[in-house]
């Protein structure tokens, strides 16, 4: 998979998905938690603290003995890693010249000591890093991981780690009525007509949006068409009810919406194959709409059409896996 391709996949280590940096052997200059902070790293050339220059990242002290430093990341959602970005933004004379990534799949909630003693497997062999650069590397091993270990050689600072991949949550918890489209349950966006202002993946993120920027907003249409987004569900399932949330979209909410579904990927381009789950229905601005779905046909993909354009905060496709 190319860098451009894997960068389109979700960040499995994201704080939005409840990822965490659970251990670092050293974080003298800057805390490990910064590694998965949302947004781009920031830098103030005039900001200094008691221990020296303040960096928005993870930075270890200068090593005076053999060895290397490392940090352990618990993925917010376990999954198959397709690519990793090690961003050394603002680290110029203090970035690590090399790094590697190990992974492991563990059940439950391992303790710090259990993680340290675990039989880690290599995911990304030792690679060279550039300073002040978003260093991107594809990953070839196609298996499920729950934790990653970032090794830096020998020491230094890394601003962010982004772990792009495909979510593979524990199916034991995907029982009963669940949100089939949720990113944390294994759903994802596979197509979108327009993502001018913000990503359509926002609408399947956990929790409620806190402002307009946390939803999906397209550009204003000046033709006779309409905008849409297509999601692959966690698995084939029967939809019971849906939620279309336009919270914080006040003067730019869609006037209407429609939801349809299909069972196979081969049918995506066949307009006649789509099954109507929710007919074209009027929407209100800044409103959390809920609609029952009167269909017992199992679907694997859903398409949300908005008319003619406008912003959506969240989409919930509630149902049961087959």
Automatic annotation (TrEMBL):
Entry protein name: Probable allantoicase
Gene name in the database record: alc
Domain of life: Bacteria
Domain Allantoicase stretches: 19-167, 186-320
Record carries keyword Hydrolase: yes
Top-level EC class: hydrolase
Family matches, as HAMAP family: Allantoicase
Catalytic reactions on record: allantoate + H2O = (S)-ureidoglycolate + urea
PANTHER family noted in UniProt: ALLANTOICASE (PTHR12045), INACTIVE ALLANTOICASE-RELATED (PTHR12045:SF3)
Family named by the database record: Belongs to the allantoicase family.
Pathway: Nitrogen metabolism; (S)-allantoin degradation; (S)-ureidoglycolate from allantoate (aminidohydrolase route): step 1/1
GO molecular function, one term: allantoicase activity
Enzyme Commission identifier(s): 3.5.3.4
Keyword Glycosyltransferase belongs to the record: no
Keywords: Hydrolase, Purine metabolism
């Amino acid at each position: 998979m190319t860098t451009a391709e894997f960068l389109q996949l979700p960040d499995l280590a994201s704080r939005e998905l409840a990822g965490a940096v659970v251990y670092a052997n050293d974080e003298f200059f800057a805390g490990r938690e910064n590694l998965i902070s949302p947004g781009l790293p920031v830098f103030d050339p005039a900001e200094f603290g008691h221990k020296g220059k303040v960096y928005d990242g993870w930075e270890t002290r200068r090593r005076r003995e053999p060895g290397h430093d490392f940090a352990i990341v618990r993925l917010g959602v376990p999954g198959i890693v397709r690519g990793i970005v090690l961003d050394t933004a603002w680290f110029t004379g203090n970035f690590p010249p090399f790094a590697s990534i190990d992974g492991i799949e563990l059940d439950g909630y391992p303790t710090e000591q259990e993680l340290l003693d675990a039989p880690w497997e290599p995911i990304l062999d030792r690679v060279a890093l550039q300073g002040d650069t978003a260093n991107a590397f594809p990953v070839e091993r196609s298996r499920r991981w729950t934790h990653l270990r970032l090794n830096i050689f020998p020491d230094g600072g890394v601003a962010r780690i982004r772990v792009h991949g495909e979510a593979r949550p524990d199916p034991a918890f995907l029982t009963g009525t669940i949100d089939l489209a949720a990113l944390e349950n294994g759903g994802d966006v596979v197509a979108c007509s327009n993502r001018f202002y913000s990503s359509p993946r926002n609408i399947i993120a956990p929790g409620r949006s806190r402002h307009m920027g946390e939803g999906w907003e397209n550009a204003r249409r000046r033709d006779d068409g309409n905008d849409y987004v297509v999601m692959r569900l966690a698995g084939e399932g029967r939809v019971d009810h849906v939620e279309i949330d336009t919270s914080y979209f006040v003067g730019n909410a869609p006037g209407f919406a429609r939801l349809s579904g299909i069972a196979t990927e081969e049918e995506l381009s066949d307009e006649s194959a789509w099954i109507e789950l929710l007919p074209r229905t009027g929407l209100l601005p800044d409103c959390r709409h809920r609609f029952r779905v009167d269909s017992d046909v199992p679907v694997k993909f859903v398409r949300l059409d908005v008319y003619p354009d406008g912003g959506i905060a969240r989409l919930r496709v509630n149902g049961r896996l087959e």
